[in-house]
Amino acid sequence: MAMTGKERAELRGECNGLKATVHVGAHGLTDALIGALDDALRTHELVKVAMGKPVELPAREAARQLAVAVNAEVIQVIGKTTTLYRFNPELKRKEGSLPPWKG
To answer: For the chain, which terminus, N or C, has the lower number of CB atoms within 10 Å?
Structure first.
């Protein structure tokens, strides 16, 4: 199910406080990198990805390819940094607790 503009805007506001969890290095979009991103999304839902200088693709295209590979939504792309989101219904949530990316 696609996100609404309002949901995406709320998540964009959350992106400012995040540090990059996944870093794309000289080897680009490898299976190992996609696995690490998948793990990060499973536990945090909202993940910032920093793309290093050697990445050959434009940042928006790299973000799109990563999102497709891990079944996530691109929330924003700024420079060589993108933030992806994937809801995980299996995460334990308590009423009034912080979202998984802040915990």
So the answer is: N
